[in-house]
Amino acid sequence: MNEEELTALHDEVMALHKQAKTAFAEAQTEEDRSAARKAYPNYQNGHMPSTPAMKAFEQLKRQTLAHSDELNEKTIEQFEHVLLNSPDGPEYCFHIANYRQIRWPEAEFTIGKSAWWSYVYAKYVLRGRFPAGEAQISASPKYAERYERMLATANNGGV
What we know:
It is built from 9 helices and no strands. It is mostly helical and 159 residues long.
């Protein structure tokens, strides 16, 4: 799938999740709740939408945490492609890098699209500067201040 197709699928999943959330919130009777469960069988209150990036992330996370070799390189590349090209990719790319506890250069462009995920990538994975995310971080006063404080702490021997 290309980025456009992943975005369309992501948007479709998000819209369906929003519809389900609304249906469950508006359900007043047990009959209404039953109808909502029937109409949206995969919806779970309090759970994030099951986007393509989330599904790919869950597979990679299982493999990473289990230190398993069950996924071949081609499958890993396919999952990573989904993460790198999805609208919610910055979040899941950060989490994979964090689970692996290693810099993921191929994902840095994607992570750098989000001020928050750039900041946490710098803090928890790189434990220092993240040039690819600095433009987004500096555009957010909240994260810019946190980032500068983290860098000052990192330069003094801690994070």
